[in-house]
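DM from R.C. (forwarded with permission)

"hey, sorry to bug you on a friday — could you get me a structure for this? deadline for the figure draft is monday and I only need the backbone to look sensible"
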Amino acid sequence: MYYSDETVEEVLRANDIVDVVSSYVHLKRSGANYFGLCPFHSEKSPSFSVSPAKQMYYCFGCGAGGNAATFLMKYENCGFQEALQSLADRAGIKLPSPQLSEETRKREERRAQLLSVNKESATYYYKLLRSPKGRRGYEYFLSRGLDTATMNAFGLGYADGSSNDLVRHLREKGFPDEIILEAGVAAFDEKRGLHDKFWNRVMYPIMDVTNKVIGFGGRVMGDGKPKYLNSPETPVFDKSRNLYGLNIARKSRKPYLIVCEGYMDVISMHQAGFPEAIASLGTSFTAGQAALISRYVKEVLLAYDSDEAGVRAALRNIGILKEAGLRARVIDLRPYKDPDEFMKALGREEFQKRIDDAENSFFYEIRQMEPAYRMDDPAQKTEFYRQIAKKLCGFEEEMERESYLRSAAARYLIPEDLLRRQVASYNLVGGESPAPVPERRTPGAAGARNSVNEAFRKKQRLLLTWVSDDPGLYPQIRPYIGAQNFDEGLYRTAAARYFEQLEQAYGPDTSEEQRQHIRFTPAAVIAAFDEEEEQKEAASLFEERLQGVESPQEKEKALLDVLLSLKQEQIQQLSGESGDPQALGKLIAAKKELEQLKKCRFTIR
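My reply, with the result:
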């Protein structure tokens, strides 16, 4: 651990997790929790839950979970120290000098080495482009209309035709082969050994928002395949949560960002005076990238190719942007294919006009849908109008839906009252409703689990979840259940730490007024574990649910069943230690507690 438990707890206490997560994920309140689309896997229905009471998040779809620091580590692809420093800065807390564990120190050193390899590689490519060996690449960029200042601003470079020039250079700089390989700038095979991954390509360094080089994109010179080659994902490079050019675009002070398809589109637009341009990294646009954008602006303009593939991408990504709480408009590039081609043909002023006239995403979707219907056929025309009504149902806010309804009715000559009745008939939007909670996936762990053991562990998770939902349960169960009733290892460690917090809050000498100032949330329990998988599994202990158990009476019966089961398991284990005098005493006490438990009635919310 970098810092003392007290320091970590102070920083977590000063940062409300809902505020932290909502800076990245569009959340909606549903009951006691907030829900949104998980930024760590693709999904259409929100299964990502954030609990203000527990100060933790948990995804019922992929099992990701943790506290505010865990979220930043996973989302920003950073280490614990960086995450805690970010939270401390956010809260105006000055952190003491960190105390690194050996394991953590090694992990952070590895990250630093990978970033150093990337930085040195970027410098190598940069210099090579401007040397006689890089003439071919330099002329390519000139032919694309780039000037020297733009090439320098984006750190553009060149990888020549040799198979191991960069590897040799990095070795001379003292980098070990395993780090060079892990950084993704080299590949290995039995025939050639360690050799350059990129060669005969112009190089585009990819930077994160803090201007650190985290990867590369390379375009081949000539007709080689693949045309574009990107760095693989590494501990410092996650394609789905980074955007090309965002390190510059986020400072543009425009109320929107323009999303393009490729590196050259972004660079050409920046050179033409549009520094708000960004692009995804050789992959489809993701929810994680949309969430990243939402940190800086509330509106996105799509400048995709005007061909069929570009239209499909725009239609797909409009939905992703909407789920992230972003407004979207689409720039019409016709008759030109892409922004780079448009800019060369018509220039900056004409492109600005296209930005000003960018089409509202709702009407763009309808316009793309319209050619599928014959307007001279009453049946098809009616079906087209039905599709408009269905799309209007997607607006949850009544005022917004009404505004779009009137505009659509005027544009397509549909009587307003008729369209309004059709929208109401679909009954697809009825205000806020609780987000569905999919059936929980069992958290991953090394090795296969025995089904009986897993059933027992589920009961342990249920108990911790119910107590974290209603901490007032703790004084009721304290005489019968403790950390010793949990499996050794992570389960017992987590239970012990959480019960220790609750003991402080619900101790016999603690007044109600004092309790208000005592922090007892699962967030501090999660912070006790260093590894991401451990934090994920610790979070799962506080988000176990029983399907169909809703009413207080059902919960109270289920709670008693769980407590009896845990106590019976304890008795069974103690019975196997009958030769131990101490175990015999514990066994007698446990049996008495079991009889008392059978007579208990618990109050649960």
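R.C.: lifesaver. Residues 33 and 51 are 5 Å apart (CA to CA).
me: no worries. The two ends are 36 Å apart (CA to CA).
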